[in-house]
Amino acid sequence: MEFFNNSVFLGVMLSLLAYGIGALLKQRFKLAIFNPLLIAVIIVIAVLAVSGIDYKVYNEGAKYISYLLTPATICLAIPLYEQFELLKSNWKAIAVGIFSGVLASLGSILAMAVLFGFTHQEYVSFLPKSITTAIGMGISEELGGYVSITVAIIVLTGVLGNMCAESVCKLFKIEEPIAKGIAIGTASHAIGTSKAMELGDIEGAMSSLSIVVSGLITVIGASVFAQFM
User: Fold this and answer.
1) 120 and 188 housed in the same domain
2) Does 189 lie in the same domain as 103?
3) Which residues span the domain enclosing 186?
4) Residues 164 and 197 grouped into a single domain
5) Which positions ≥6 away from 28 have C-beta within 8 Å?
6) Coiled-coil annotation: which residues (predicted)?
7) For 35, left (φ over 0), alpha (ψ -120 to 50), or beta?
């Protein structure tokens, strides 16, 4: 236990091992419930709870993985560049789709906050739920929310989007690749985009675009909606 508490790489090793187990389960059973990120979160929580290792000790190593978040997000520009002509020919529909998605996200949080009687801090913590963590943390902190809750909600939203995206598209008979990509990216940021990329190149490109645009719109929209409570 002393070795683990003093190890700088504990967080990295545990995170990668947990995600690897999740990836193997997903490959073996082919079920949406075996999302690698979801499995990794469950395993890490279980290990920390059983072993008694403090979260701060774990995070000392795990935080280095977070440094890869920004360059990984930037790399999503590659499939967008490859579908640039398609973007230009459909930019009006894409713009309306992303704006509608952001408005629906913010509006649903406002409705939920009123229904369940959230405090202002709790309310603003939930507003950035559908955008990438790098932007969402900044919004939550600026508006006075609980950043730790914001991060957890963003991850949960992405995981659920990744798990449910394909089924929801089938349920509502959404077959247009552009529509699929816009919906997934706007609702569940980078984690959902990984599912969009599995569905096709166009879906992945449009989802990548949605991450950036919806993030920028949410920066403004969250500030406006924060005044409602």
Assistant:
1) yes
2) yes
3) 74-228
4) yes
5) 34
6) none
7) beta
Structure tokens at 129: 């739920």
Calculate the CA dihedral of residues 45, 189, 81, 202 and round it to 10 degrees: 100
Go through 205-215 and write b for each residue having 16 or more CB atoms within 10 A of its CB, e for each that does not: bbbbbbbbbbb
166 lies in the same domain as 128: yes
Overall residue count recorded for the chain in this entry: 229
What DSSP designation does 83 have? T
The first and second tokens of residue 65, run together, are 């993985």
Res. 71 pLDDT band, cuts 50 70 90: confident
Clarify whether residues 107 and 27 are in a common domain.
no
Q: What share of the chain has pLDDT > 90, as a percent? A: 59
| C-alpha to C-alpha distance for 155 and 192, rounded to whole angstroms | 10
Which residues fall within 8 angstroms of residue 161, CB to CB, at 6 or more apart? 184, 187, 188, 189, 191, 192, 195
Q: Domain total for the chain?
A: 2
Q: Decide which of 67, 85, 112 is a domain's last residue.
A: 67
HSE of 127, CA atoms in CB hemisphere, 13 A: 34
Residue with tokens 């990744």: 162
| Lookup: tokens for 73 | 């997000």
Cα 184 to Cα 195: distance, rounded to the nearest angstrom = 8
Cβ contacts of residue 114 below 8 Å, gap of 6+? 229
24: three-class secondary structure by DSSP: helix
* Res. 109 pLDDT band, cuts 50 70 90: very high
